[in-house]
């Protein structure tokens, strides 16, 4: 509390002054150094940080006015009872309370009665009660109350300091804190292990160790919420919390702040070769509206794929403008159960209502997918800023992390093959329950995003105009766009192709060979056997979409922008209407080569395997194929064998196929001859 009175000596504005006059709201100050007079307003003087009175402690402080609110109830009642009698001694009447009865002054405590007489009267008054006090005690209470207020009347013996280890050797507490801190990266143990370690360290340092009961009590107080004896993942998460105050980066415009991340999906899927595995989900979310800009599923451990660039391309390109998207969706919907498919009108409405958000800043982690040169160059070209999250700090991307958990809670756990969050929550033989292929899960995820997620109210999405109502991502986008409309920008079809993976290939008379698959088109006629003219190679630039390998794109860099990309379909694209992925194509080519005894894979046989894999029929596991290869005949072309020596090789574990000792009948021989002719073709 600050005060200023006439003739006080004070410090103000780095000088010594004396108050020589007070005229209403203004004071006259005389400088102790020069003797000059300065007039200043009292409010300005008291509010100035440089003002210091002559006696800073002459007025009471207000630190303890709420002291009784933080003590036990009985202790507070005893202090209030004692305060009532002390105030009556000092002022002649007890303090005002909430009792409706009128306070009648006691003549024994009148103003003209000396204080020592009042104290004697109070001693006599309390002598007949259950709480008698001596005269010396009352004198001490009166003096302490005038100095420190009601806090001086509390029995300090009943207010024990509960800080852990206050009465223990400080070195014991140091060892406990050090042990708990060291458990962040250590496997979880028991408290007994902690006590044994503590006792061993204490003996080495010559410290007296208290009883086990005391150590257990101290350990429980020290561990707090650090989980040194709980789940290791929880312990590491708590250790990753920043030391600075928690804050939230607020985004007020669509695209102002976008977060991107990848994580393995808790779902076992069936790969094209019949094996099972977990896909990896990469997604991008707009913080202001909660809109999922894009989401891609790839097999876990996929290398050499620019996930960040593909996700950015799909996020900025409307779905109908992406080459092959309609075909891929049609394929997936043709293989899904009818009860799991969203009706076409509802799906079309959801796709039309999905906001197209152009990001200004993207928060990324230090993963290889997002630190690649291609992704960084693409963001720089599109004038998109990149923000690096701190290492090992998922709290820098809380919104995308929460979305990943929502995918598990609202989507993944309802599918066959759900693996659970960890081993403790995993069922038995989860891989055998796997049913869905990658393209089917991708289709289900796309439909769920546009029909469920975008229309689901989120508690954090609230508009200042209607703060009590949680909005959906689509509604939040509409509300923010109405307040501060932004330009809607999207990538074109050519822009989308430009961000796809690239390979350099020559154009032969038979077309373009990409990963043992032939692509051809009449539009390639001017480029056959022609060098590209590039400075470092004669090959042509070819782009392809790993999830839609029905068609590739050749770039003629000599043509103006907008006319450079030439669409080249697969030679059997008319027979393989559904779009197929790169992983499906590789498995089909490998199986076709195995059937043709290592020679060039026939396109019609590749087509058969692609259709079989896409339909999900007769899929064999990798173990079964390995066993079949081990039990197969020597690698000798069957066309070189005599007809009676040719024996069909069992396929897909067909137990009814004839063995080498059995003579095949005429029908089997006819089928075998047809297979040989197809292999020769």
Quickly describe the structure.
With 681 residues, the protein is an alpha+beta fold.
Describe the structure.
35% of the residues lie in helices and 13% in strands. The protein has helices at 42-47, 73-91, 115-127, 135-148, 170-182, 191-205, 212-223, 232-239, 307-316, 325-335, 344-353, 373-381, 398-410, 438-451, 473-483, 493-498, 582-595, 603-615, 622-630, 666-680; strands at 9-12, 15-23, 26-31, 37-41, 258-264, 269-270, 276-277, 279-286, 292-299, 361-364, 385-388, 502-505, 512-514, 517-519, 540-545, 548-555, 565-569. A hairpin with a 5-residue loop joins β8 and β9 (292-299). α5 crosses α6 (191-205), α10 crosses α14 (438-451) and α17 packs across α18 (603-615). The radius of gyration is 41 Å and the shape is elongated. It starts with 8 loop residues before the first strand and ends with a helix.
Count the E strands. Answer: 17
| Overall pLDDT confidence | 77
Largest sheet: 5 strands, mixed
Poorly predicted ranges (pLDDT <50, ≥5 residues)?
623-666, 676-681
Strand percentage, roughly?
5-15%
Would you spell out the secondary-structure blueprint of this structure?
Layout: E1 9-12, E2 15-23, E3 26-31, E4 37-41, H1 42-47, H2 73-91, H3 115-127, H4 135-148, H5 170-182, H6 191-205, H7 212-223, H8 232-239, E5 258-264, E6 269-270, E7 276-277, E8 279-286, E9 292-299, H9 307-316, H10 325-335, H11 344-353, E10 361-364, H12 373-381, E11 385-388, H13 398-410, H14 438-451, H15 473-483, H16 493-498, E12 502-505, E13 512-514, E14 517-519, E15 540-545, E16 548-555, E17 565-569, H17 582-595, H18 603-615, H19 622-630, H20 666-680
Parallel strand pairs: 5-10, 10-11
Antiparallel strand pairs: 1-2, 2-3, 3-4, 5-8, 6-7, 8-9, 12-15, 13-14, 15-16, 16-17
Helix pairs in contact: 2-4, 5-6, 5-7, 10-14, 17-18
């Amino acid at each position: 509390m600050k005060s200023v009175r006439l003739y006080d000596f004070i410090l103000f504005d780095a000088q010594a002054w004396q108050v020589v006059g007070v005229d209403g709201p203004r004071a006259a100050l005389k400088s102790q150094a020069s003797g000059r007079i300065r007039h200043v307003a009292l409010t300005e003087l008291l509010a100035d940080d440089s003002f210091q009175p002559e006696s800073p402690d002459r007025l009471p402080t207000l630190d303890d006015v709420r002291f009784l609110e933080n003590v036990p109830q009985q202790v507070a009642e005893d202090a209030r009872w004692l305060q009532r009698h002390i105030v009556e001694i000092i002022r002649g009447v007890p303090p005002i309370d909430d009792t409706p009865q009128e306070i009648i002054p006691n003549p024994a405590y009148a103003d003209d009665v000396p204080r020592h007489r009042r104290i004697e009267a109070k001693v006599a008054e309390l002598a007949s009660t259950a709480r008698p006090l001596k005269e010396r005690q009352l004198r001490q209470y009166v003096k302490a109350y005038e100095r420190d207020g009601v806090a001086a009347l509390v029995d300090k013996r009943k207010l024990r300091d509960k800080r852990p280890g206050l009465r223990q050797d400080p070195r014991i507490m140091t060892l406990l804190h050090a042990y708990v801190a060291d458990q962040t990266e250590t496997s979880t143990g028991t408290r007994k292990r902690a006590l044994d370690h503590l006792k061993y360290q204490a003996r080495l340092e010559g410290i007296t160790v208290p009883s086990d009961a005391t150590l257990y009590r101290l350990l429980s107080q020290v561990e707090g919420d650090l989980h040194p004896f709980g789940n290791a993942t929880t312990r590491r998460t708590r250790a990753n919390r920043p030391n600075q105050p928690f804050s939230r980066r607020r985004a007020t415009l669509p695209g102002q702040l976008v977060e991107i991340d990848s994580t393995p999906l808790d779902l076992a899927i069936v790969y094209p070769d019949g094996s099972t595995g977990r896909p990896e989900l990469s997604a991008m979310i707009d913080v202001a509206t909660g809109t999922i800009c894009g989401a891609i599923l790839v097999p876990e451990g996929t290398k050499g794929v620019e996930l960040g660039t593909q996700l950015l391309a799909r996020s900025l390109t409307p779905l109908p403008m992406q080459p092959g998207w309609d075909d891929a969706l049609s394929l997936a919907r043709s293989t899904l159960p009818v009860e799991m498919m969203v009706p076409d009108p509802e799906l079309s409405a959801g796709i039309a209502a999905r906001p197209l958000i152009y990001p200004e800043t993207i928060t990324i982690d230090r993963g290889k997918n997002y630190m690649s040169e291609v992704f960084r160059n693409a963001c720089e070209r599109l004038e998109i800023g990149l923000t690096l999250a701190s290492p090992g700090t998922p709290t820098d991307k809380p919104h995308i992390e929460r979305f990943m958990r929502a995918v598990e809670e609202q989507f993944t756990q309802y599918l066959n093959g759900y693996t659970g969050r960890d081993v403790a929550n995993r069922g038995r033989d989860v891989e055998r329950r796997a049913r869905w292929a990658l393209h089917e899960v991708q289709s289900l995820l796309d439909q769920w995003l546009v029909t469920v997620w975008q229309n689901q109210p989120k508690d954090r999405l609230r508009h200042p105009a209607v703060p009590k109502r949680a909005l959906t991502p689509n509604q939040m986008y509409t509300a923010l766009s109405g307040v501060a409309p932004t330009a809607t920008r999207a990538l074109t079809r050519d822009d989308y192709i430009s961000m796809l993976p690239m390979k350099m290939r020559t154009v032969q008379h038979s077309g373009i060979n990409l990963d043992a698959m032939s692509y051809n088109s009449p539009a390639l006629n001017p480029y056959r056997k022609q060098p590209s003219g590039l400075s470092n190679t004669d090959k042509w630039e070819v782009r392809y979409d790993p999830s839609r390998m029905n068609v590739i794109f050749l770039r003629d860099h000599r043509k103006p922008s907008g006319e450079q990309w030439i669409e080249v379909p697969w030679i059997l694209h008319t027979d393989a209407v559904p779009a197929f992925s790169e992983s499906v194509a590789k498995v089909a080519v490998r199986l076709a080569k195995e059937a043709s005894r290592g020679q060039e894979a026939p396109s019609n046989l590749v087509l058969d395997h692609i259709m079989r894999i896409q339909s999900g029929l007769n899929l064999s596991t990798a173990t079964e194929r390995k066993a079949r290869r081990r039990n197969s005949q020597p690698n000798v072309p069957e066309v070189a064998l005599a007809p009676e020596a040719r024996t069909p090789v069992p396929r897909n574990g067909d137990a009814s196929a004839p063995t080498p000792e059995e003579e095949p009948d005429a029908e089997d021989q006819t089928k075998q001859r047809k297979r040989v002719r197809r292999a020769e073709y």
